[in-house]
Predict the structure.
Amino acid sequence: MGNFLAGKVVAVTGAGRGIGRAVAVAAAAEGAKVVVNDYGVAVDGASPTSEVAEAVVKEIEAAGGAAVAVADDISTMAGGQRVVDVALSSYGRLDGVVCVAGILRERMLFNMAEEEWDPVLATHLKGTFTVFRAASAVMRKQRAGTLVGFTSGNHQGSVSQANYSAAKGGIISLVRSAALGLDKYGVTANAVAPVARTRMSAGVPTELTEIGEPEDVAAFVVYLLSDAARDAGVTGQVYTVAGPKIALWAQPREVRAAYAEGGGWTPERIAQALPGSVGTDPMPMLARLAAMEAAARAGERPNA
Ligand SMILES: NC(=O)c1ccc[n+]([C@@H]2O[C@H](COP(=O)([O-])OP(=O)(O)OC[C@H]3O[C@@H](n4cnc5c(N)ncnc54)[C@H](O)[C@@H]3O)[C@@H](O)[C@H]2O)c1
């Protein structure tokens, strides 16, 4: 047992399996008391069971740590609130929340049903909001705390997971908004885009060339939850963790601008001026699309 998070109380959603489980176990091993939330569902979000969260609590306790299970659905306001309430009623404070819970419902955009869009947005994006909302009210009063959201490299765009990609992009904007809105209360917010071997990554249609274990991601999240990250001023950031690699994503910013002269823009003036001035910004994933489609036609899993 280490003491990187000694005295802290941390809540982790989706902590029954995969990356969330590794985060909960690592946080407890570093001295945190942990709320283990998991609705215990299949990859597509179906068939909930409370056993998954309880099993991780037993595992943490067996290793000498302290943990409590919450089997609620964090896509509901009540579920998000309960995760926070249980931290307060069990341990008296809340220093960090890590929103890892997620599901997949893959479909091409032109075939996607409302039943595939809504639950994916509800679990990832709203499920981060419900917990951030309840936790930030506590952290604002404490004048300290850490919020961690889980995004994906797929926030850049996805051929067959527009719902998931849109949710993950939304989580980045939510994290940046939390970082901006809570900075003056001493609360930090960051996002992690992991690549790790779990049941979820096993099912993706692309071959992940840089991949590691959930424990690699967990070590990074423990750092984000620590005083060391707060003292280093880490907030509003998006990091990828893939095995031995830690990478920082750029902040969104304007690339180039052009200004209308004399009378403003018309569609004709824009058509004339845009290609040679403001132009376009190459889309890395679009550039790789042809190679990915060729690999898929050859029956291989395309590299991503
Ligand atoms: N594994 C990867 O390579 C990878 C890549 C990019 C992003 N991610 C993201 O990392 C996170 C963890 O992914 P994972 O690979 O560990 O997945 P996983 O399927 O192994 O675990 C996800 C957990 O979330 C739980 N969950 C689902 N809906 C819930 C709800 N409404 N309330 C509470 N719990 C719920 C599930 O029961 C499950 O235990 C997800 O947000 C995922 O999108 C993972």
In short: The domain at 9-248 is CATH 3.40.50.720 (Rossmann fold). The chain has two domains: 9-248, 254-304. The mean pLDDT is 95.
